[in-house]
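Sequence design from tokenized structure. All designs in this work follow the same two-part layout: the structure record, then the generated sequence. An example of the structure record is given first.
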């Protein structure tokens, strides 16, 4: 069969129909797009922020400082030992226990010391008896001297009378010689009585000296009792215990170490190159790892000798007396008594329901409920479970720098010393934002647009922070970051 001309079959007709279909589909798509009425997306407008403080950055003179690490130590650390040889019979405390001045810590066998004390008391009694005998001997000798002087006076008067009578030849020579001999004998007796008085007074002085020696021996024997019952010399805490019950205590052998918790100092090795900038009495900022703000100490001592190995000198910084902690403990104790008195007024009024307890700040504990173990006794002075806090429950380190730090011997801290001045760029701390490990500020451009810029920070100083790089003097920055401030924001006036 021969195909007819104009037939719709074949490749040419197929391609034609496909082209017409594609053109129709394109027309429909354009028509639908035009009927939708949607506009092409446009860039979002920059946020507009008002009430943003702006300041111009400038260079400022700041102190040039250096920091050196140091170690906290107690200003008073007492190593206690016994002066007598004996067996330890009791140890009253352990490491970490708070102690009071005069509190007995260790007891040593006192039998030998007690025997010596009784012997000293007996010796003193003998010495006092000797003094009484010597005083009586002095009184007798003085009475004899007085009688001898009376006899001599009578003999003298008689001698004068017989002398006149002998001159008139009214008495014989023998009678006169007898009267003269009695006068000489009376004079000699007076001299003998005077020497007896002196001897009695010497024996009295000797007895007095023996009495004083006996008193000193008794005082020495009594002082040994202080080494039999070793007491704490200060209010503080036990930091070391070197003895147990049954061990022998000997003179010079350490038994306990007690530290005074009211005064601490920081000992800092300062290099020789910086030692010339340190002066006695200078205030020194001290930085503890746990403290957000530094504590101001004062240089109390500079050891003049250098360590030949490190070429450093030891500088001691007084951290001050922390008597406030003792007052806080007394205040807490008084508040415990106040709460107890309020509870005694009426049991029914002392305990409230859970809802009322929550409204009043959680000061009461509902009867019958158990503590979850995480709550701590505070204003009521009770421990978890309702046990009343005794004096021993108080912290042995009551002298807080802040709620999270206390003074402890051996603690680490850094002291900052001023060695001159230098210029630096400072910005307020509240002008700095943090993004993970990165820090930056918002720089204000001439058209009022804000741009975030990363900077590298240095030391903090009185609420400001040093900018080491990323910012130049004369640039304007946002001095306080406000909500809604982002990179690219447009600042507007109120």
């Amino acid at each position: 069969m021969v195909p007819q001309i104009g037939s719709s079959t074949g490749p040419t007709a197929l391609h034609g129909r496909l082209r017409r279909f594609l053109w129709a589909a394109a027309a429909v798509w354009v028509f639908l797009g035009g009927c939708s009425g949607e506009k092409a997306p446009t860039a979002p407008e920059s946020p507009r922020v008002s009430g943003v403080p702006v300041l111009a950055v400038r260079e400022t003179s700041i102190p040039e400082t250096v920091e050196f690490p140091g170690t906290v130590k107690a200003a008073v650390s007492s190593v206690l030992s016994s002066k007598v040889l004996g067996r330890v019979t009791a140890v009253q405390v352990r490491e970490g226990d708070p102690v009071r001045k005069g509190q007995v810590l260790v007891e040593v066998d006192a039998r030998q010391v007690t025997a010596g004390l009784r012997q000293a008391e007996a010796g003193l009694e003998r010495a006092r008896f000797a003094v009484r005998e010597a005083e009586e001997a002095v009184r007798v000798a003085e009475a004899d001297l007085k009688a001898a002087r009376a006899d001599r006076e009578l003999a003298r008067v008689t001698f004068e009378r017989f002398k006149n009578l002998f001159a008139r030849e009214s008495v014989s020579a023998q009678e006169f010689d007898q009267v003269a001999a009695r006068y000489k004998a009376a004079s000699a007796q007076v001299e003998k009585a005077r020497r007896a008085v002196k001897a009695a007074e010497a024996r009295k002085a000797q007895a007095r000296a023996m009495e004083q020696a006996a008193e000193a021996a008794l005082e020495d024997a009594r002082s040994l009792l202080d080494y039999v019952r070793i007491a704490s010399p200060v209010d503080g805490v036990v930091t070391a215990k070197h003895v147990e019950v049954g061990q022998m205590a000997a003179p010079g052998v350490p038994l306990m170490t007690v530290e005074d918790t009211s005064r601490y100092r920081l000992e800092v090795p300062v290099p020789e190159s910086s030692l010339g900038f340190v002066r006695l009495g200078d205030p020194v900022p001290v930085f503890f790892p746990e403290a957000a703000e530094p504590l101001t100490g004062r240089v109390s001592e500079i050891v003049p000798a250098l360590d030949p190995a490190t070429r450093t000198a030891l500088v001691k910084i007084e951290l001050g007396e922390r008597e406030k902690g003792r007052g806080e403990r007394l205040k807490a104790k008084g508040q415990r008594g106040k709460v107890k008195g309020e509870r005694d007024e009426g049991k029914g009024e002392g305990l409230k329901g859970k809802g009322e307890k929550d409204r009043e700040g959680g000061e009461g504990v509902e009867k019958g409920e158990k503590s979850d173990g995480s709550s701590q006794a505070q204003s009521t002075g009770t421990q978890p479970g309702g046990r009343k806090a005794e004096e021993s429950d108080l912290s042995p380190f009551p002298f807080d720098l802040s709620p999270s730090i206390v003074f402890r011997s051996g603690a680490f801290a850094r002291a900052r010393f001023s060695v001159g001045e230098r210029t630096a760029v400072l910005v307020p701390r509240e002008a700095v934002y943090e993004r993970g490990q990165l820090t930056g500020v918002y720089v204000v451009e001439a058209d009022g647009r804000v741009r975030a810029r990363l900077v590298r920070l240095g030391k903090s100083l009185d609420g400001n922070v040093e900018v080491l790089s990323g910012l130049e003097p004369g640039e304007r920055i946002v001095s306080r970051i406000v909500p809604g401030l982002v990179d690219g924001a447009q600042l507007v006036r109120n």
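The chain has a mean pLDDT of 78. We note this feature because it recurs in several other targets discussed in the main text.
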